[in-house]
């Protein structure tokens, strides 16, 4: 199998494990590729047997498995480069709170064995597609969310929302999040959105600090076409971001359209791991805090 490592070389702990993992994979006759930055962390005696690439695009060419080293941000970046190629991602976590990187460094060897045995948990994650309605030829994608937000230092903005051509609301808020189920545990959750199982097919619409207690998050079918209009004053603009990356500014009257993309991203997790296990581990979801306090 052809395996490519991607990741943030500054993450503490990667250098401790990486040489051993590469040696392990080479001994099992896998083809191993790394970025130049990660290759610098690998023992010199292994360099003759690995493929070193200068960029992610070359690294992922003719690859069977992308191994992402870092946190959720590294997986989001990996998903951006993988796009519609269908290459699965195995996330090894080197970070704090995160929901996408499922494998701890100490579980790496067992996770690879599950991949070889095809006993891993494969999840197809919905991807969002978005574009400025006035320029439909330029399309952007997001695994977590698209965010429309006001300029820093300006007042909250009026935002118009349509679903499948039907006007839903025109409200005042700091912004609006259109999230995939995968992104329900990201910015949407922080803004008060619902937790959604990542394998169901829905889209989540979450206002950011709306100036009305009745403006609540809503969940719609994944077949929905969502329009967001910047109903702002002349001279003001709404920022549009995809998975934390700034894309463009919307001027008064301009519309950004979001719907389900025509491809998905495949994430690999340990066999037996569930979404609810992650919620309980990361968020202590469902725990009785009274018992925690009594044990102190």
Protein described:
The protein is α/β, with parallel strands linked by helices and 296 residues long. The protein folds into two domains: 2-120 and 270-294, Rossmann fold (3-Layer(aba) Sandwich); 127-263, Tumour Suppressor Smad4, CATH 2.60.200. The chain is built from eight helices and 17 strands. Strands 1, 2, 3, 4, 5, 6, 7, 9, 10, 14 and 17 form an eleven-stranded mixed sheet that branches. It has a six-stranded antiparallel sheet with strand order 13-12-11-8-15-16, with no helix packed on it.
List keywords for this structure.
296 residues, alpha/beta, Tumour Suppressor Smad4, 2 domains
- Assembly state: single chain
Q: Give the biggest sheet.
A: 11 strands, mixed
Summarize the helix and strand pattern as letters: EHEHEHEHEHEEEEEEHEEEEEEHH
CATH class category name of the largest domain: Alpha Beta
List the total number of helices.
8
As a percent range, the share of helical residues equals 10-25%
- Cα end-to-end separation: 50 Å
Name of the CATH superfamily of the largest domain: Probable inorganic polyphosphate/atp-NAD kinase, domain 1
How many discrete structural domains? 2
CATH topology of the largest domain: Rossmann fold
Structural class: alpha/beta
Strand content: 35-45%
